[in-house]
Amino acid sequence: MTSTKDCAGKCAVTFTVNGEARQVVAYPMARLLDILRNELGLTGAKEGCGEGECGSCAVLMDDVLVNSCLVPVLQAGGTAIFTIEGLASEGKLHAVQQAFLDCGGAQCGICTPGMIMATVELLGKKPAPSMEEIREGLSGNLCRCTGYMQIFSAVAEAARRIAAP
Fold it and tell me: Which CATH architecture has domain 95-163?
């Protein structure tokens, strides 16, 4: 069950986060971003604009990139949410995270989680994207620090690393 029916106040909402079943009691229109950060302690997704324009709060919901600042928690009921905290495994960074680190694709860090999640979604669809496909795949994410070239290089490098055995 995703939620309690006809709740006038707070509702119980159940979903999976990074492979773990979670339930929260929240107002139906509470933002998924706030639930992730304040209720579940997953602070990787950042609030940059609060309007769905910058992509800093991007997470995967049922394998689709969404801006969590725009998703009411009730809409997330019954879904599988994947955040940047779910990428590293056994103390080792995911190939995308490592490529961002190695290529200088992160500076202040506000956009980085969203950029990385957008990259994960992009590489899931297009394992060997062209530079144009990289630009398009990250077009919903804004960065005010890097000038984007290091980020684009990091995405291309991540694709190479993932493709290599």
Answer: Orthogonal Bundle (1.10)
